[in-house]
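RETRY 2/3 - previous attempt timed out on the joint model. Re-submitting the same 542-residue input unchanged.
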Amino acid sequence: MSDPRPIGVFDSGMGGLTVMRALMARLPNESFLYLGDTARLPYGTKSADTVRRYALQAAQALVARGVKAVVIACNTASVSTTAVAQALAPVPVLGVIEPGAKAALAAAPDGPVAVIATETTVRGGAYRAAIRAAGGATVPIVQQACPLFVPLAEEGLVEGPIAEAIAMRYLAPVLASMPRPKAMLLGCTHYPTLKGAIAKVAGPDIALVDSAVTAADAVAALLVETGLGNTSGPASHRFLATDAPDRFAHAGEIFLGQPIDPGLVELIDLQ
Amino acid sequence: MSDPRPIGVFDSGMGGLTVMRALMARLPNESFLYLGDTARLPYGTKSADTVRRYALQAAQALVARGVKAVVIACNTASVSTTAVAQALAPVPVLGVIEPGAKAALAAAPDGPVAVIATETTVRGGAYRAAIRAAGGATVPIVQQACPLFVPLAEEGLVEGPIAEAIAMRYLAPVLASMPRPKAMLLGCTHYPTLKGAIAKVAGPDIALVDSAVTAADAVAALLVETGLGNTSGPASHRFLATDAPDRFAHAGEIFLGQPIDPGLVELIDLQ
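RETRY 2/3 succeeded.
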């Protein structure tokens, strides 16, 4: 049994390409169809209701194009994983919150864990709940929203004095919290691009945890469990964007870690 | 003759409240209905086609609610003023580009004029064209996109070392241009909130031009010309937002310069 259909991956914009990169490395035989909702990004400052509506539309667009599973790469939209999974059943849906929570606990089993994420993710408390559910019932957790990290990453301003000053502004209260965190969960797909500046501020004794690799492991396990894996290859990847496909192909390269052929990026309308 | 219908004002989010503030001061008898498309902001990094589509939907929503004229307060969306006006005829539509260009020329009749704005506004070149059309055919013009100014303003980080370092990053090439600008047009509704940091970097010899006041003059002239003015009062104002009306009421206060009653902010869907 081998299922050659692509796996759908969806994000508010280009940040989720860091998750697709980890998926491609972990699952080299699988084809991926990536959707970036660039016409409505960012999600991280919008209400949970609006983000849920956007996530449903995006997931349905992927299913309409024949994907065998959907990965919600956007942390903010991952809060809606259960609602999206119900609407899409029987197509399986995976978010990044649960894998991220497990990765944080693996890095610091007794905590404390710091979660840095968008305003909406922090307000919703999904990481806190997922860490509790994953066995960290008594682990101390501190949360911090870092709203300027996303525009900094999109502007490519990921290192140097401005990036570090902004990181210091957000992280100082986290670092001053007692007890000092042992792991810091990068709870937004954009944040790994700022890893250098964050590490410089956080210091060497705090493990920075990126959920992309753990999410890829979870997808691999799902394919085994459901028999949806593709063993025959070759893999081929395509991209959908709701605005500015050329900009997506050009700027997306930083996040995916390899060039994106503009001919493979299709403009679509989710409304 | 007195027309009590409200004037519609529309922006991608809360920045346009700076324009509404100038309008309320200039036209105290007029009622305003403000629409912030908070579910899809920002517009400044999105393509001209997508912004035009959003602007049309917003303007039509205002007309459906009985406004007598539409002011496009968002600079990025103002590029679409002609297209929106054609779709809405006979309801008159005004953008902020032309008033802004006239204000810049009034401040520095022979230039040079620096235009700072969003990526999409700069790329479209509308301010350059409007300055040329308004009598500045030979005025030297330099343009600069400042993408991080909008998230800084929305984060309330409008002064201090981070705001100044980012202003320096964008403005250094503008200030080094020969000949040095005599006026700097703040071509985005968010930028006036950063006036302090911009002035500190630009120095006292460059006039900072905000189009809100000139735009209010243009609306006043339109009301006289069309006989649409309201002389009988009292004025009453309402607000529409496409996401998070409570956040709009709370955070909008900084831009409007007075409190916004959350009960006056209605959540609507533009799709």
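The first strand of chain A starts at residue 7 and ends at 11. Closing ticket.
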